[in-house]
Amino acid sequence: MNKPGRNSKRRHPKKRRLILRGVLFAAIGFYLVWVIFNYVSDTLKAKLVETQVANYDYIQSTVDFNGILVRDETVLSVPNHGKLAIVASEGERVRVGAVVFKVNIPDVRGRDGVTAINISSPRAGLVSYRLDGLEKLLVPHNVNIMDLFGIFAGHTLQSLKYDDNQVVEAGQTVAKVVNNLEPMLVLGELPNQPVFLKKIKPGGRVLVDLGLAGSKPVYLTVVEAKPTGDKLRIVLELNDFAKEFIQNRVHTFRLISDRFEGYIVPEQALVYKDNKPGIYTVYKNLTRWQPVKIEGKVKDQVAVSGLEPETTYVINPKYIEEGQPVN
């Protein structure tokens, strides 16, 4: 008959070996799962990562406004009923005394049954045959003595255009000569916000996109800036005499309140380390953190410096860490 004490002692080492073997296999299994999980995770993250080449450009905060153009202009009228014969073309600059147009009036004693009356310019300037009825009211010297905003608001703009050989009546105004040696004025209304009150002051300058094809933003001098209710009324000096500013009374301008140059990246691309901004750049398919300086921010775009041209960077760094591969 076997004694239970001896068999029990013999079975214990075998049982311990089985337990150790099971633990070892479990550890190896967990390790393999961990390796596979990390490999799959890194592979998926690498596929989710988006990259882009940083381009040097600018971002800006802007506000559009309808500018009322105030010009120093002289109107020309016809003395008699007849037909208009244009001499100086639209936009042409004439000197003092130059014939702008003629009026051919019926006259049995004249050649071909008409007599031509010359209408000369009393001043030098640019000729236009587009009129709106405000030529004598909206003039620069009235800016300090009349409410030009109120005059414009209370006036229905005419849209008159006169062409060659058009029948005209006595006393009818058919042309204007715009003084292009003195600046015209631009009246505008902006939202009455602190950002504008702080930057737009009389005697200062503001950056404005003139809204002309191929033109670059220019600085215009601020003549007046006056809060009125929820609006900020501004008066600017304009020295550009493009045809759009000669012919029209209202033109859309774009005021640039902030403008920042640099490499433009989305704000989400920034990665902070020790409270210092940077981005993940890609070098030999690996990410590395590159510190940058923030020059300015507009909405969700940031202008930064500290990068080399044609630098590839990570747009969505939340999916990756420094040193990880990028496809």
TrEMBL record:
Keyword terms of this UniProt record: Membrane, Transmembrane, Transmembrane helix
Top-level taxonomic group: Bacteria
Regions that span the bilayer: 18-37
Domain spans labelled RND related barrel-sandwich hybrid: 73-179
InterPro entries: BSH_RND-rel
Pfam families, sorted: BSH_RND_rel
Full protein name: RND related barrel-sandwich hybrid domain-containing protein
Native source organism of the sequence: Thermincola ferriacetica
